[in-house]
Amino acid sequence: xxxxxxxxxxxxxxRKVFHRKNDEPLVAIDDxxxxxxxxxxxxxxxxxxxxxxxxxRILAGLTPASDGTVRIRGKDINGPEPDFGIVFQTxxxxxxxxxxxxxxFPMEILKLKNGDARKRALDLLELVxxxxxxxxxxxxxSGGMQQRASLCRALIHKPSLLLMDEPxxxxxxxxxxxxxxxxxxxxxxxxxxxxxxxxxxxxxVYLSDQVLVFSTRPARVATRxxxxxxxxxSPELRYTExxxxxxxxxxxxxxxxx
Length: 258
Ligand SMILES: Nc1ncnc2c1ncn2[C@@H]1O[C@H](COP(=O)(O)OP(=O)(O)OP(=O)(O)O)[C@@H](O)[C@H]1O
Ligand SMILES: [Mg+2]
Prior knowledge:
With about 260 residues, the chain is of the alpha/beta class. It has two domains: about 5-85 and about 160-255, P-loop containing nucleotide triphosphate hydrolases (Rossmann fold), CATH 3.40.50; about 95-160, no CATH class. The protein is built from seven helices and ten strands. It has helices at about 50-60, 100-110, 115-125, 145-155, 175-190, 200-205, 240-255; strands at about 5-20, 25-35, 40-45, 65-70, 75, 85, 160-165, 195-200, 210-215, 220-225. The strands form two sheets. The chain has a six-stranded mixed sheet with strand order 6-7-8-3-9-10, with helices on both faces. Strand 9 (about 210-215) and strand 10 form a beta hairpin. Helix 2 runs parallel beside helix 4. The longest helix is centred in the last third of the chain and has 18 residues, at about 175-190. It is globular and about 45 Å long.
């Protein structure tokens, strides 16, 4: 417990070593400790190749840690959990399925029989601005629209934990800013605890309750920032002194001078 809030996830001394054929072992993550509070949005900010995706995959139960413990709601994570939702850097929609059927896909693989799923999928698609595109194939959508659809797919089964790996990295700046606001809207509606990987200092500060800034590989937590700016947040916030102060702190931890 932290104050009167509940701990959702705890990482203790997490280390990951990749043992590679005919090569030295590669230490991707070293001694990472952190706590994520139920319902909060935490960004993992760090330089390219430092180990962010590896850490996200460990949280998702897709990659085992070499050492240390990952506990979610007090339970050790040893494999993928059905109530997690993941958004990858590329949308990875199935081209032969309609947008609606892509969104409904997790319900099929998790064998969740739920008569409300179709209605929920339609509601989510409306929430992300894809009303009217339910029946089209993904190749008729722009990159940003595809990523919106993949966000709906990650949310369809009401995950308790939403994991996002640089989901907006490939989008232009304006679309990325729109997607940031959309994510905050979605988070307000769903209340899912969210872990968000990004390279962008501004994106991390804008979205998060907490920013974990990582060192170069092996990833270690260099700085932990609690962004005590109240929600809802709006685009103009990016130009305020309070916001710039957090950007500077995160930048300094990354070794960026500006
Ligand atoms: N399956 C694997 N086998 C061996 N090495 C790996 C494997 N997966 C990742 N690595 C190595 O671990 C390190 C961290 O990789 P990771 O993908 O986690 O970085 P990242 O911070 O997500 O980078 P980026 O910001 O570029 O996406 C890299 O040096 C990478 O080569
Ligand atoms: Mg990555």
